Amino acid sequence: MSILLEAKEVSKMFGGLKAVSNFDMTINKGELIGLIGPNGAGKTTAFNLFTGVYQPTTGVINFAGKSLKGMKPSQITQRGIARTFQNIRLFSELSVLDNVKIAYHTHLKYNLAEAVLRVGRYMKEEKRIEEAGRELLKIFKLEDKADEIAKNLPYGAQRRLEIARALATRPQLLLLDEPAAGMNPQETNELMDMIRWIRKEFALSILLIEHDMSLVMGICERIYVLEYGSIIAHGLPEEIKKNPEVIRAYLGGEA
Amino acid sequence: MGIMDQFFQQLINGISLGSIYALIALGYTMVYGIMKLINFAHGDIYMVGGYVGFFCITIMHLPVLPALVISMVLTGLLGILIERIAYRPLRSAPRLSVLITAIGVSFFLEYTMMYFVTPQPRTFPHILSDVAYHIGPFVVNNQQIMIFAITIILMALLTYIVQFTKTGKAMRAVSFDTEAAQLMGINANRIISFTFGIGSALAAAAGVLVGIYYNSIDPLMGIMPGLKAFVAAVLGGIGILPGAAAGGIILGIVEALVSGFISSTFRDAAAFAILILVLLFKPTGLLGKNTNEKV
To answer: ABC transporter domain spans which residues (chain A) (predicted)?
Structure first.
């Protein structure tokens, strides 16, 4: 197995506050990994470091063999890391299809002159992403809602649209920030099936943050546990379940 | 001339004036939409556009359309440059700092221009012979028709770019949520540059058209139209493109009617009275939605 993402001794300080310290993580190609930890442990900060929203104070992050140091979020997205957000951040006033098309747009090659004159690559490329976008929406059972305004979708559908939009950037690594938040058990089950399926179908690695333990334990191959910005445990789901450090972090008390 | 005839005549004058306001207001509203900045230097960009057009026509002896295009391109580049030098370093600064910088840029443009072109007003050459068309009792001249036609064409082009191209979609994405847009692979800095470029080019078009229409330009000519266009943008709902267009036209018509029926000394008062009324009764503007600030 080859390494896709590697974080080595990554720390992030906000003034005097250490949000993440000495963070080590390896994600191999095709792996499905869970990142868990109590609220405020630094999980979303880790996502922000991987996507270039924050730069690490110290340490290095390598993706597909290259350092991400100094790269802008848009460049990292083009390299192949996509994410969803804990609090849904769709382009809420745009149509469902446009949300997905915007994400495809980084791969389009036509210039403004061609677009204004409606010649050359413009028509062909626009048609291609229109089709690809509808195809993608079909996978997420959103095809009949393609022309609706994103904010009018029910909550579960908005969550699915966020994943669809992230996939449209054609990532190698997909970061899911609490994808099951606010879902009922049945929706969570469907989501689990969908995550497994897209990993296989799109040949992805997935890193997910989740509080729903049944989801994490059910689908993740390996799990990292964060507490106060540091990794306190990592391993297979069964190992994590029995790890006294983890139990202490979640349930409190002396260990 | 009966009172109705005069009304319609003023309506025609108002639409020409309003087209100018609309072109300037579009730039205001685009920049506001994408980075929540009231670019108070925008009126001065319009002034620079007028001068570039003036020099194209007087020194290079170009016809109107090439002069218009060159002015739009050069002034568009100036807009991009201003954003790069003055506003980009302040991207994460408080909004007040950026606003004050905008006022500084405004003075910089006014007085730098004054240094180079002198404060004397210049007379725009009379390149279009006056042709007046009589449609029933009304008179429309060819300059008014040209202003209106160019405005419509530019607005149609802008609408097309914003609605149907990847750059336009990226602009809308950045204005909704800059961070999420960047994480979709959109280079927000490029999109912001582009927005400044387009907005400045539209203002430049307005500057050239005003030069042709009123025959006179001077380095401080941007102050009043800049403020009026700001009123127009607020009237239509700041950040909303059709709102800026509608706001500009409405403001132009109101001013023309006030000049024609009351007194031209009251036209500026009328424009600012509109601003006060909008802020009192519908602060989100005519096309704006009421949003409750989340706490």
So the answer is: 5-253
